[in-house]
Automatic annotation (TrEMBL):
It comes from Orbilia javanica. This is N-acetyltransferase domain-containing protein. PROSITE patterns: GNAT. GO terms for molecular function: acyltransferase activity, transferring groups other than amino-acyl groups. Residues 31-172 form the N-acetyltransferase domain. Pfam families: Acetyltransf_1. Transmembrane segments: none annotated. It comes from the Eukaryota. Signal peptide: none annotated.
Length: 186
């Protein structure tokens, strides 16, 4: 299984001038902390820089970057601007927990969030024994339909009086996953 983890640790996807990468060394730690401390990232608070770096390294962390080559530059190396994140807490074998999905509001409406989640899905599809991917969300209006549509997730439990939606999708290693590629409830 180490090969699955190694294969997912430095994956990249490209779309126009945008990059999704699972290389944790690309994250600008101070900027990630600013994002975690922003009002747009209402579900979590930042942690000290050393803890943030460890958190990103310990997870399968997906960074979204806009890459541009500055005009009049003799260097063809693109500059990368951090504009999104998703973290998958996983053992790379049977379990994954999706958290901290965020795209900068200035870049929303461009399909980057959907693309980011499809990249996450591609990564989980490489885990042949994955039993389930789970997440929690408080955004019933936008997030629940978003994850239902993109990941095939369903709400497992609806708390009384609102609260967090607990969602899951069964993976290929789940006993109720059908040979036809669909999950079934038993």
């Amino acid at each position: 299984m180490a090969s699955i983890q190694a294969g997912l640790r430095n994956r990249t996807w490209r779309k126009d001038q945008f990059l999704v990468s699972t290389d944790p060394s690309l994250f600008p730690i101070e900027r990630v902390i600013e994002v975690f401390d922003s009002k747009d990232f209402y579900w979590a608070n930042s942690v000290p820089p050393e803890a943030m770096e460890e958190m990103l390294k310990s997870s399968l962390s997906f960074g979204v970057y806009e890459q541009t080559v500055p005009e009049n530059s003799t260097d063809s190396t693109p500059e990368s601007k951090f504009i999104g994140i998703a973290r998958l807490i996983t053992d790379y074998v049977t379990f994954s927990y999706l958290t901290d999905v965020w795209v900068d509001s200035a870049y929303q409406g461009k399909g980057l969030g959907s693309w980011l989640i499809r990249c996450v899905q591609e990564a989980t599809d490489q885990m042949p024994h994955l039993r389930r991917t789970m997440l929690f969300t408080a955004d019933w209006e936008r997030s629940v339909p978003f994850y239902e549509r993109l990941l095939g997730m369903s709400v497992v439990e609806t708390p009384r009086g609102g609260g967090l939606a607990f969602m899951e999708v069964k993976g290929k290693g789940h006993p109720c996953y059908g040979s036809d590629g669909y999950s079934y409830d038993v």
